[in-house]
């Protein structure tokens, strides 16, 4: 993927998305001992950065593909992204979602006019559901992260952050959470092309720690166990995302659920904005590893704010 790929993606989706604000907070800076700039994708269309990748993929489909509709499997934010993108271009969307996905996310997908097909909460069940949709409708599958069009779209969040918060000095670090690796891959590619002196680091929950194992071994690994509040980060990497991450990401750090919840609460209380648990993982990393970031300028992508308010962690 080239710099031009990301620039073209940004031009393609620009009129469909918000250019989300970059916020700072002196209290959190003091606690972290660093200068933090938060890219607020919780204010994005659908409430998450995934609108970017979904739009970039759907907007590149041919008319005959759009006529048959689009499909994907997702526990939440990518589901909403594809449903929203399909609505914008007048296409039908068929979204396979685990029955355990937050009701607020299932309701939102239906609200964009998509058909929700519920399945058991396993990857096999999700993939089987999509296969059945394709056999029934001829819809085009848009993978949540294993797709260059999606990765290029996600890269535009970091591109904007680099443009909007450069100030007097460049970023030392950009941080993003990692699930399937679409956002992390895009963030790393934007740093590589547009801020080559900036290092990229990922945060991952201890209760879904596959990416750190994959990063260390060089092959796609599974997490030893799955048990985390960060429900948006449960997927494993793909060969595509792992290759980009190994080439362009400096490190991956894990944090516990109590550390994630504390960071989430801190943002709610001090910044007065709503974020979801997965979104708090990078700040939890900064607070856990203060020595690594001391005195440095750090960009953090706040990935989304789609919270089930009936099930708050605090």
From TrEMBL:
Listed GO biological process terms = D-serine biosynthetic process
Task: Name what cofactor the protein needs.
Answer: pyridoxal 5'-phosphate
One Pfam short name: PALP
Q: Which InterPro entries match?
A: TrpB-like_PALP (IPR001926), TrpB-like_PALP_sf (IPR036052)
Q: Which UniProt keywords apply?
A: Lyase, Pyridoxal phosphate
Q: Return the CDD domains for the record.
A: Thr-dehyd
Q: Which parts of the sequence belong to the Tryptophan synthase beta chain-like PALP domain?
A: 14-304
Recorded GO molecular functions are: ATP binding; D-serine ammonia-lyase activity; L-serine ammonia-lyase activity; magnesium ion binding; pyridoxal phosphate binding; serine racemase activity; threonine racemase activity
**Family designation:** Belongs to the serine/threonine dehydratase family.
Entry protein name? Pyridoxal-phosphate dependent enzyme
Species of the source: Rudanella paleaurantiibacter
């Amino acid at each position: 993927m080239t710099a031009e790929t990301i620039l073209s993606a940004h031009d393609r989706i620009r009129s469909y998305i918000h250019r989300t604000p970059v916020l700072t907070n002196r209290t959190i800076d003091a606690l972290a001992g660093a200068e933090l700039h938060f890219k607020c994708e919780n204010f994005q269309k659908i409430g998450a950065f995934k609108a970017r990748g979904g739009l970039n993929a759907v907007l590149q489909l041919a008319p005959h593909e759009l006529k048959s509709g689009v499909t994907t499997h997702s526990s939440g934010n990518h589901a909403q992204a594809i449903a929203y993108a399909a609505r914008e271009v007048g296409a039908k969307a068929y979204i396979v979602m685990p029955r355990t996905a937050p009701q607020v996310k299932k309701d939102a997908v239906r609200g964009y006019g998509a058909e929700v097909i519920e399945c058991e909460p396993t990857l096999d069940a999700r993939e089987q559901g999509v296969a059945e949709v394709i056999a029934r409708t001829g819809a085009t599958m848009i993978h949540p992260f294993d797709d260059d069009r999606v990765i290029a779209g996600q890269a535009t969040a970091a591109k904007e952050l680099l443009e909007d918060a450069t100030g007097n000095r460049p970023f030392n670090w950009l941080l993003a959470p990692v699930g399937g690796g679409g956002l992390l891959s895009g963030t790393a590619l934007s740093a590589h092309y547009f801020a080559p002196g900036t290092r990229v680091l990922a945060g991952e929950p201890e209760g879904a720690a596959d990416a750190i194992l994959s990063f260390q071994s060089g092959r796609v690994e599974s997490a030893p166990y799955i048990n985390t509040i960060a429900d948006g980060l449960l997927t494993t990497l793909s060969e595509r995302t792992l290759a980009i991450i190994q080439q362009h990401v400096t490190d991956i750090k894990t944090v516990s659920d109590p550390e994630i919840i504390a960071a989430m609460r801190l943002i709610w209380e001090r910044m007065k904005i709503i974020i979801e648990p997965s979104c708090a993982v990078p700040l939890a990393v900064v607070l856990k590893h203060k020595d690594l970031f001391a005195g440095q300028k750090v960009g953090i992508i706040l990935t989304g704010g789609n919270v089930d308010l009936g099930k708050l962690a605090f």
